[in-house]
Each structure stands twice: as C-alpha cells, then as structure tokens.
Amino acid sequence: MHEIANFLVRSAEASIQFFWRPFLIWTLISIFIVLSFRLTRISHPLFYYRALLALLLSLPFIFVFTHFISFSFFNDAQSTVATSLLVGDLVTSGSQPDSIAKTKINLVTGVAVFIALISLILAFVGLVRLLVNFFSQVSFRQTLSPALNINLVQALNDIKKKVSFHGYVELCESQNAQVPLTFGWFKPVIVLPLCQSDKENLKTVLLHEMIHVKRGDYLLKWHQEIIRAVFIINPLVSYLSREIDDYREMSCDSEVLHYNTISPKNYASLLFNTASMAKPHNPLYSSMAQNKSILMKRIIAMSKYTSSHMQNKTIQTGSLALSILLGCMVVFLSSCELQNVNNDEVQLEQSETSTESSDIFKVVEEMPEPVGGIQGIYQNLTYPEEAKRAGIEGRVSVQFTVDADGTVSDAMVLRGIGGGADQEAVDAILSTDWLPGVQEGQKVPVRFVYTVQFRLNSDA
Description:
- The chain is α+β, with helices and mostly antiparallel strands.
- The chain has 14 helices and 13 strands.
- It has a four-stranded mixed sheet, with helices on one face. Strands 9-8-13 form a three-stranded antiparallel sheet.
- The protein is elongated, with a radius of gyration of 34 Å.
- It starts with a helix and ends in a 6-residue tail after the last strand.
- Mean pLDDT is 76; it is low at 71-105 and 344-358.
C-alpha cells in the first residue's frame, strides 16, 4: 500500500509539473488573446481563422518546451544534492526529501490523480473515435467512382487554373454523398453528389472545395482533431476548434467571392440550400454545408469581403504573418513563465538545502554509530507479535538526526512493512545510545537513514 501511495503522489506531482501547469498557462494566455480579438473587432475572417489555428497548434509545442525546461532545471537542482551513502546496515542513494517519508494521498493529490486519469480516458476515447472516422473515410473512398462527365472535368481544370493550383486532384461522384465535400492530403478528392446539376452553382462549389485543397485544410484538420481529442478535458480547446471550423468556411467564402464567379446574393442562396442538407458526420471532411446556426453569421460577414486583388493579397500575407507571430508569441510567453516558475522552485530548493546543510550535515568524515555497533540497536528491538502472526518480515528504513550530543531526534519511517514493525524500529533507534558524527574534529549533527531488518527465522 505504501508503494502504491508513493506512486500516486509522484504521478500527481509529475502531472502537475508536465501537464497541468503548462496547460493552465496556455489557457490563460489563450483566453486573453481571444478576448483581445473580440474587442479589436478584426473584420476579415481569414485573420481570425489563422490566428485561432495558430493558437491551437501552439499547445503541443508548449509541452515540448516544458519538458526541455523542466528536465534542465531538474538536473541542475539534483546535481547539487546527489550523494551515495553506505553506513553499517544503511544503503541509500541520493538525498531523499522528508515529504516522501510521510506519503499521504491528500485531497489535492487525489483530485490531480483523478482528473489526470479522466483526461487519459477521454483522450484515448477521442483518439479511437478519430481512427474510426479515418477508417470510415477509407471505406467511403473505395466506394467512389471517378467523374466521367467531360463538363465536370473541364470545369475542375478551369478552377485549378483560376486558383493557380498545379497539384493532383481527383473528382468523384457518389450517390452516398448528399453535399459536396473534400478530403485527402497526398491524393485529395473532391466528391460531388449525383444530384448536382446547376452549372453555375457547380463551378462555385468546385471553387470552394478547391480552395480547401490548395490551403491544405485536410492536414490542418488532422492536427486540429488530434489536439481536440487529446485535450478534450479543456473546454477552451473545444471552443477554439468549433470557431476554427466556422472561420475556415467563412474564409473560404471570402476567397470564392474574391474571384467574382458568383454574386453575394446568389452565393448566400447557395449556402442556404446546402445548409438544409445533411452535414457530413466525419469531422475530417471539409464541406461548405454547415449548421444553420452559423448561416446568418456567414451571410452577414460577406459584406466585409473585398474583391480587390491587392487588398486580398495583403490580407493573405498579413493573416499568415499574424498567425506565425501569434504562435511564436504564445510559445515564448508560456516558456518564459514556466522557466520563471521552475527557477523559483530551484532557488527555493537550493536555499532550503544550503540552510539545512549549514545546520545539519548529511555526509561527514566520521558518521554517527550506535554504541555497541549494530547489536546495540538489535538488543533494544522486539519482534512485534502482530508481525509474527501475519508472517511479516523485511526491512524498515528510518530517517533521523543524531545531534552533536548523541541524542536522536526527528525520526520518521521512509519505507515500512507494517504489522507494528515500523514503530518498533523507530523505538529501537530512539532507545539506542549513539556516537555523534565528526567533521573537521568537531561533533556535528547528522541526518541520515538506517535500515532495520526483521526476519522470522532469527532473533531480529
């Protein structure tokens, strides 16, 4: 039970250090940035889309930087106190903090472990669901048939030239698709429902889906969905993911209208018609069909779009620069904050270590010894009846301080076996007379660990 409790405590400390702390810092910075965007009222959706996407994608990088920073400071701190002691029946490695001796699962530790376990379960479920969607996409692609209509193929080639895209795109039709959609990275596919017949709307639909292909939205959606699955415990991640989905389509709307292939009024009518159709259930698909709840939001935003090539080019460049700058800024601010926190902890630990070492030594030229040697301890030791009846045997490690006058104080069990043996070992050490430690000819207090062994087939 002691080992389990110790494992849970260390797991909680590790989760706080490497997960919850950077997660909280990222959350606070993200909330501030999102609120700032709302107050500034940036008009073009492409700025929002790329900025929110950069904000979400910065989250994994923060954890990478956290591990580098934490391990660096951890090693620096441990190198100042690491020692190896061998005294009589004592074997211990390193400087063990007193908190480990009294391992207790308090409320904070219990809550941290519980939430961490829930997070792992939810992340696992989310990743499994993502894999199911991926295999569903693979199965769906196997049912597709290439578009044989010459007009469709020619319309696609015209759209590719219009958006200056020179890569491979497969155009397919399917009776299982109710709305136009696109997916795929190396071999992207645009899927049209068989009922698609309006030539003007067809070109607009192809243009919309081709913009998704050109921008690499499928790969970005994969990163987005992975982050959403892993960090689903944070409501802000889900909120950002929904906003990114909305502004992804709104930014596509702006580029469609930029090419002047359709009037805003007719495009709004097209969006309304597609919104009445069933939206694809697979989140890996990109489709202009979205819920009616954001339809009005998309239509109102059309008045802010520009058809000027120069202005559109400026928006493209500016939004890309903003997203890169924002992502780097979030990672930098989070890393600086984590470095300051870890620096404060290391300084506190080193301060405590130096203060303790100035009063109580851990290693001296002559370590304390029990009067009469090891037998001096065992002659004060009685095998507990409870441990005998339960067949308990093993080693009990006790940490204590031998003062300059030979008295023993601050005794505590680091590792016990139960059955009354732990308290018996402490009582035996307290009842034993000790020779104090000596450093440079002076008697000094020394704090160290002694191991008392209990065996059923021997006297002690």
